[in-house]
Amino acid sequence: MSSELRERVEAVVADIPYGRVMSYGDVAACCGYPGAARRVGMIAAAGGGGLPWHRVVLSSGRLAVTGNGDPDWQSDALAGEAVEVRDGRIVGFGDVRWYPQ
Question: Does this model's pTM top 0.90?
């Protein structure tokens, strides 16, 4: 995986505003790599950088499944930003979905 893509992904994720979310595909497209949602997911799985990875979700508005050992980490973090999650899905996904101008 290119370090250029990683740098772009991390820059986009760092810019996601409080209380807003992007899908993996949104992040990929914003970085100039449309169709590379899985690659973005691999970068997110590696984590790092103290970035708000909890703001990156599936294109359906469902939360990501991660191997970090805490199944509630993402919903808890989003709830702390007033993003409502019910049954593993963001309520009003279209209203909190963000894409940079």
Answer: yes
